[in-house]
Amino acid sequence: MKKKNILIVGGTGFIGKHLAGKCLSLNWNVTSISTSKPKKKNKLKKVKYIVCDISKKKTLFSKIKNNFNYVVNLGGYVDHRKKIKTYRSHYLGVKNLSNLFLGKNLNSFIQMGSSLEYGNLHSPHKEHMKTNLNKMKSVYAKSKLMATNYLIKLNRKYNFPCTVLRLYLAFGPKQDLNRLIPITINSCLKNLDFDCSEGKQFRDFIYIDDVIDLIICVLKNNNSRGEIINVGSGKQQKIKTVIKKIIYLSKGGKPNFGKIKLRQDEAFKIFPSILKAKKLFNWEPKYNFYAGLKKTISYYKTNE
């Protein structure tokens, strides 16, 4: 049987590293595109790494010559304060990628979207909910929604085999120390004082292995073409409780609650309905939050 070929855009990032490992275990050929080379400790022997900025169309088209069965776009500029780079990577990059593969024999194109595409709509978010693009303040959220709208139009007009996965807060081993859970774990393992918000807001966290399982389900299933699908646990967690659980499991850490002020426009509750993923793929998260947290803390104890 011929090996499947997958292109992972953002293959050196948190989700990309885990997805690449999973695809290798399935005996697929894996190619990664990122704007920089992987760190030595994250480099996987059988992955072909390409350095390329997807917002630069000519460069992208010159570097990607192979045919692929699957494309998963996890790329995009991380520092959302840099508005032009954010717009170019999260919107123009998606246009370039989809145009590169339009008309080619592609089985599936996954765009990793964001829960922020729902704007100020009340949770639980459902995929049929529509957001007014003009009312969105965040360039990142706006760019993500523009990318979604563009891909859905391509699907309707040309039957482009895209699926948009709207991700909530993924966490797990190998995540960089620039997100709430790894930052808190790192501080607690070192028994440091650390500043945080009052923690009254609620968020949805999903363990990385469950995210990867759903991506693989979508790639293998033609029913998902042209669909928007939420990716979360479907359960809201209070941030203050999350921090306290990490302190308990790490046996250290001194949080200064209320030191960091929330943005005025920050939503109090953000969590999804995951009924659509359950219906389409019979998928639901295998890891509850506590189990995922224990595995994540164990990783940082050993590796960081």
Itemize the secondary structure elements and their pairings.
Layout: E1 5-9, H1 14-25, E2 29-34, E3 48-51, H2 57-63, E4 70-73, H3 83-101, E5 108-114, H4 139-158, E6 162-167, E7 169-171, H5 180-189, E8 193-196, E9 202-207, H6 208-220, E10 227-231, E11 236-238, H7 239-250, E12 254-257, E13 269-270, H8 275-281, H9 289-303
Parallel strand pairs: 1-2, 1-4, 2-3, 4-5, 5-6, 6-10, 7-9, 8-12, 9-13
Antiparallel strand pairs: 9-11
Helix pairs in contact: 1-6, 3-4, 5-7, 5-9, 7-9
Task: Please provide a written account of the structure.
It is a single chain. With 304 residues, the protein is α/β, with parallel strands linked by helices. The chain folds into two domains: 5-169 and 206-231, NAD(P)-binding Rossmann-like Domain (Rossmann fold), CATH 3.40.50.720; 171-205 and 235-264 and 287-303, UDP-galactose 4-epimerase, domain 1, CATH 3.90.25.10. Helices cover 38% and strands 19% of the residues. It has helices at 14-25, 57-63, 83-101, 139-158, 180-189, 208-220, 239-250, 275-281, 289-303; strands spanning 5-9, 29-34, 48-51, 70-73, 108-114, 162-167, 169-171, 193-196, 202-207, 227-231, 236-238, 254-257, 269-270. The strands form three sheets. The chain has a seven-stranded parallel β-sheet with strand order 3-2-1-4-5-6-10, with helices on both faces. Strands 7, 9, 11 and 13 form a four-stranded mixed β-sheet that branches. It has a two-stranded parallel ribbon with strand order 8-12. α1 links the parallel β1 (5-9) and β2 (29-34). The radius of gyration is 19 Å and the shape is globular.
